[in-house]
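Margin note: ligand = NAP.
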Amino acid sequence: MTTKKHIPKLNFSTDWSYAPAPEGTDHIQLNQSYDLFIGGKFVKPESGKYFPTLNPANGQKIADIAEGSSGDVDRAVKSARQAYEKYWKKMKPADRGKYIYRLARMIQERAREFAVIESLDGGKPIRESRDIDIPLVAAHFFYYAGWADKLEYAFPNRKPQSLGVAGQIIPWNFPLLMAAWKLAPALATGNTVVLKPAETTPLTALKLAELIQEADLPPGVVNIVTGAGETGAALVKHPDIDKIAFTGSTEVGKLIQTATAGSGKKVTLELGGKAANIIFEDATIDQAVEGIINGIYFNQGHVCCAGSRLFVQESVENLVIQKLKDRMETLIVGDPLDKNTDIGAINSAEQLAKIESYIELGKKEGAEFYQSNMPIPNGGGNWCRPTLFTKTAQSHQIVQEEIFGPVLAVQSFRTIDEVVEKANNTPYGLSAGVWTDKGSKIFHLTNRMRAGVIWANTYNKFDPTAPFGGYKESGFGREGGLHGLAPYLKF
Ligand code: NAP
Ligand code: MG
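Resulting structure:
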């Protein structure tokens, strides 16, 4: 039953704006070109080829990046193997921990520089890279440094041992944070690493390589090979890799699983998502709306666990949609380096084209389309206004498929059984959110949802102590917390 509620209409004028408050770039140091980081040194790629990394806010080149070939991957794996046998495996666990603590402290000291480079290279608002990404990067290194000499307490009576060399492949949405999620547990458990950053966001990983040199980590313990998909594929195929950790699309995850089948390599896959955010009529509606906005428009919707599907209980549907639209009108799309910016630049022209094609598809599928009216920058760069589709159906592709952009699809529901069935009805199962005043409802629902992480009355909260990972086509294995140690150990 739909109860009619009085919905106050708010008047948002779009002719005002905040004075720009851009973060300075004079304190950062970037080279014109970056080589591969192998054996503790920056070395030229054997092909001599480089590719540009662009600033998605203006399309301009920031630096040239070495393109790693399979030969380069082989050099990196050999160097990681040598470092494993010669130094890392033999080192006292407490000493390994000291190196990781040192890295954590150095990242904190250079946090501002890392935050600015992350926003320049990837397009995310400086508020996020400064307040979320980089502090979490340091937190992950601190957290796992603490485990280095306590593995026997983490797994009592099981004699945990390192695996050897880990190949790690990461995406562009949280570049340095994904590097930290991968490196910190691998190093703490005594493994050495070859890391392949995403093609569009290699810079912070390469700055981290400089820090690794300064921290005096034994050469070859961490190697960083930049390049495109083929570089990642070469790493996956390399016969002397003991473990592959991958975060990225479900499509590439499937290729990796096929490529590693029967090889004896350990594999963890953190893949896509299509999270359901569920608002019950007894929720604190304003708080929920703020959480929904954060859940989908945070980081331009470039978030695997983004709350990209919204289920609203029918009695509050109109109220919630009106409040969402009002709030969307106040979101500032603009310069990632400006501290006022809520939504930065879409990471690449290809990703923008993909998002726009889904927006067209949503209109064709018959959903009701709404975009905010705030101005967007017009001097180049990749931009997308926050977008809302209402009156969507379970069968719509915009409801089933991951868009990985600031596009929210809304449906209504009446009963718990109905919403659980709808929420679980996608190929994914990474995360979900529930908004209600009743603790019992939260537990009842979370037990029936097939999602690795479920937030209650909040969204997109991360902590190094909490495991993260998916069900179904969202992948397998957990990263973070004590659970995140196990995939790097044998017993
Ligand atoms: P992607 O295309 O799968 O790329 C991820 C990484 O894999 C990149 O470094 C990529 O290199 C590399 N790669 C591409 N093809 C490869 C191959 N055949 N073999 C080995 N490596 C290969 O994903 P993306 O578009 O960068 O990232 C978005 C996806 O990541 C979304 O689906 C999102 O949900 C998922 N994601 C999941 C999580 C999670 O924790 N579950 C977290 C973040 C993102 P290039 O950059 O050169 O293509
Ligand atoms: Mg870039």
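The chain has two domains: 33-271+474-490, 276-463.
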